[in-house]
Design goal:
Blueprint (H helix, E strand, L loop, with lengths): L29 H14 L14 H24 L82 H5 L31 E6 L2 E6 L28 E3 L7 E3 L4 E3 L94 E5 L2 E9 L2 E7 L5 E2 L7 E2 L10 E2 L5 E2 L6 E2 L4 E2 L6 E2 L5 E2 L6 E2 L5 E2 L6 E2 L5 E2 L6 E2 L5 E2 L2 E2 L2 E2 L5 E5 L1 E3 L5 E4 L6 E2 L6 E4 L4 E4 L7 E4 L7 E2 L14 H10 L3 E3 L10 E3 L2 H8 L10 H50 L1
Parallel strand pairs: 8-10, 9-11, 10-12, 11-13, 12-14, 13-15, 14-16, 16-18, 17-19, 18-20, 19-21, 20-22, 21-24, 23-25, 24-26, 25-27, 26-28, 27-29
Antiparallel strand pairs: 1-2, 3-4, 4-5, 6-7, 7-8, 30-31, 31-32, 33-34
């Protein structure tokens, strides 16, 4: 048969076999030819390539055929020379030499895997955990037992009956210290009353305790220095009057019915001691000042104004309305409802430590609260909005309602608006409803019933979200919880990020481990991480990754599939060139293929394949000699299969031709056998 053209072989050179070795078998007898072909087929594994797996070359095959067919051809020629006349039987020939050893058989199956390698080095130490909360105060210890006391003389031994002073002397003879006294041991009979007069009491005079009269003020050391308002100076009718001596004379005398003052101290009858004969307004009883009581006011200053009006207030200060006319002043010290031309620093407010309220339609709209020299609090909106006592620099811009007021609970907290929001120390709530920024420097942007409960945590919006971890963030969504340190939930519903630095998003995504990333699609079931630093994604509709802006290159993992598909559309490819399949096969045969494990994995986890550097050196494909693209590995394998197929096809053609020749030889042999039988 005609060999394939060069272009049909994918650009390869003509096959080295060219079917030359089997042409010599055409002249062989059929029976011996069958043996020769059988021997060849037995030595050539149809699944291998000659010269690669079987170990046979063209020369080997030719030698096998020559050794089997040449004697047959010689015998046929001898028979033809004898004109089909059978000659005498020849002597039995000598035993032939032992044949050459057969070619090496195919490679046996791979042996069992070797023992597991040594255990790898210990991994790096993980990130330190967050400090735990401060423990509570321990319980108070049990109070020790009371010290013992000596109550009777019989408890002391070795002392005579007259040695009692020895028991109590503590630096001074006959002295008894307070801790040494037994309860009820000091009684009235024990106190020396010698030299005391009747009705005297014991008092300190000159640093000593002496008997003295109980009359107040009879001695220089017995005067009264202070009388407290809650007790006063009281007396009883049983003992008569109470006198307070304030100098010469009787001073103030208090009896059960009256209080009198000595005439020498007449000024004491008036409260205003700074000005004699003056009585302040609160001291005047209602309706006590009548016309008859007024004698020193000029009648011209009291001008009746209308029936029953009594006084004209316009005349009390000596000024009339004309004194305030535009010709008399310029209003420069007053705020005008129409506005003022301000050329200097002016102030509108209070000069005392009292809050300033601005009202609209009789309802408070703005309250400015002073804080003892600190930053004042600014409370706008409804009167139900409040700032906790002690807080300074707090701000409530507006909003609130009756029963739903805002509250700033600590200094420098801020509520922008909305209703029923709460902010703590340096925290802020921009707006929304029932939001709480209770963590130090935390923030809630808006939404409803969101809580930022940890330090510097953030909830941007949504509903029922909780940022409970330090630096945690919930951008939005509903019923999400970011409780891990620096964790985050960009959005979604019912997501949890409880691991440090974790991230969860979508529907019911649970990032439960440190550094975990979890995405949940719209399918209504939990999808959770199972290890630290893990990426877990549920995309029941499949995955698509594009590596160019036109979305023409990339890879996809179809829905329900476990195999990645690379974009391989003919319409997105350029510079297409044919390859020599047999050359690819030869390179694949020469390529070193080994088993190995990645350094980052356990040695028990095995992989198989070439090294990327060897693959790149052999085929020159891919972006980098450190990587093997799956599409390139597949392409090389397919090309090698094509090369192997071309060799197998050539072998099949040679076998078919050989079979035709065998059939021809069998027919000739049959004719010869027939002639031989007829000749006999």
């Amino acid at each position: 048969m005609k060999p394939k053209a060069n272009h049909e072989r994918g650009g390869c050179a003509p096959s080295i076999t060219q079917n030359r070795w089997w042409r010599r078998a055409a002249a062989a007898p059929a029976m011996l030819g069958i043996c020769a072909v059988g021997l060849f087929l037995a030595q050539v594994d149809p699944g291998c390539v000659p010269g690669a797996g079987s170990g046979l070359t063209e020369t080997d095959v030719q030698q096998i055929v020559d050794a089997q067919l040449n004697p047959v051809e010689q015998n046929i020629q001898e028979l033809q020379a004898g004109k089909d006349t059978p000659g005498p039987a020849g002597a039995k020939g000598d035993k032939g030499d032992k044949g050459d050893a057969g070619a090496q058989g195919p490679q046996g199956p791979q042996g069992p895997a070797g023992a597991a390698g040594a255990k790898g080095d210990k991994g790096d130490k993980g990130d330190p955990g967050l400090p735990g909360p401060t423990g509570g105060q321990g319980i108070q210890g049990i109070q020790g037992p009371a010290g013992g006391t000596i109550t009777t003389h019989s408890q002391l031994s070795g002392l005579a009956a007259d040695d009692h002073p020895q028991y109590v002397m503590n630096g001074e003879a006959n002295a008894v210290t307070t801790p040494m006294l037994v309860n009820a041991a000091v009684a009235l009979p024990k106190i020396d009353t010698a030299g005391a007069d009747p009705n005297q009491i014991m008092k300190f005079v000159g640093g000593q305790l002496v008997w003295a009269n109980d009359e107040v003020g009879t001695t220089p050391n017995g005067g009264v220095s202070n009388v407290y308002a809650d007790n006063g100076l009281t007396g009883s009718a049983t003992y008569g009057e109470v006198h307070l001596n304030v100098g010469a004379g009787a001073g103030i005398v208090v009896d059960p019915n009256t209080v009198s003052v000595d005439t020498a101290w007449a000024d004491m009858r008036y409260v205003n001691v700074a000005e004699p004969n003056a009585i302040s307004t609160p001291m005047i009883q209602d309706a006590a000042v009548t016309n008859a009581k007024v004698t020193s006011i000029q009648p011209t200053k009291i001008i009746p104004q209308g029936a029953g009006s009594g006084l004209d207030a316009d005349e009390l200060d000596g000024l009339t309305a004309s004194d305030f006319a535009s010709s008399g002043h310029t209003h420069s010290n007053y705020w005008s409802l129409g506005g003022n031309s301000v050329t200097d620093l002016y102030a509108l407010g209070t000069t005392t430590d009292f809050a300033l309220n601005l009202v609209v339609n009789s309802a408070r709209a703005l309250r400015l609260e002073p804080r003892d020299g600190n930053t004042p609090n600014i409370i706008g909106g409804h009167a139900a909005n409040t700032v906790s006592a002690g807080a300074v620099g707090a701000t409530i811009a507006g909003g609130g309602a009756a029963g739903f007021g805002h509250q700033v609970t600590a200094s420098y907290g801020t509520v922008g608006g909305g209703r029923n929001n709460t902010a703590a120390d340096f925290a802020a709530v921009s707006g929304g409803y029932a939001n709480s920024a209770s963590g130090d420097r935390s923030f809630v942007g808006g939404g409803s019933e969101n809580v930022a409960s940890a330090r510097e945590a953030t909830v941007s919006g949504g509903s029922n979200n909780n940022a409970g971890g330090i630096y945690a963030t919930v951008a939005g969504g509903d019923t999400n919880s970011a409780s891990g340190y620096a964790s985050m939930i960009p959005g979604g519903v019912d997501c949890t990020a409880s691991g440090m630095y974790s991230l969860a998003a979508g529907l019911q995504a649970k990032a439960l481990h440190a550094g975990a990333f979890v995405w949940g699609d719209s399918y209504g079931a939990d999808v959770a991480s199972s290890a630290d630093r893990q990426w877990t994604i549920r995309a029941s509709g499949g995955y698509r990754f594009f590596t160019n802006s036109a979305q023409s290159t990339g890879a996809a993992l179809p829905a329900g599939s476990g195999t990645w598909s690379s974009m391989s559309d003919r319409n997105v490819k350029d510079n297409v060139r044919p390859v020599c399949a047999q050359e690819m096969l030869q390179k694949v045969v020469a390529l070193s293929v080994q088993t190995w494990n990645y350094e980052s994995q356990d040695p028990a986890i095995r992989h198989i394949g070439p090294m990327a550097q060897d693959f790149y050196a052999a085929f020159g494909v891919g972006e980098d000699e450190r990587y093997i693209g799956t599409v390139d590995a597949d392409g090389v394998a397919l090309a090698a299969i094509q090369g192997l197929n071309s060799i197998v096809q050539e072998q099949r053609e040679a076998i078919d031709a050989q079979q035709s020749r065998i059939d021809e030889l069998e027919a000739r042999l049959a004719r010869l056998e027939k002639k031989l039988s007829q000749a006999e």
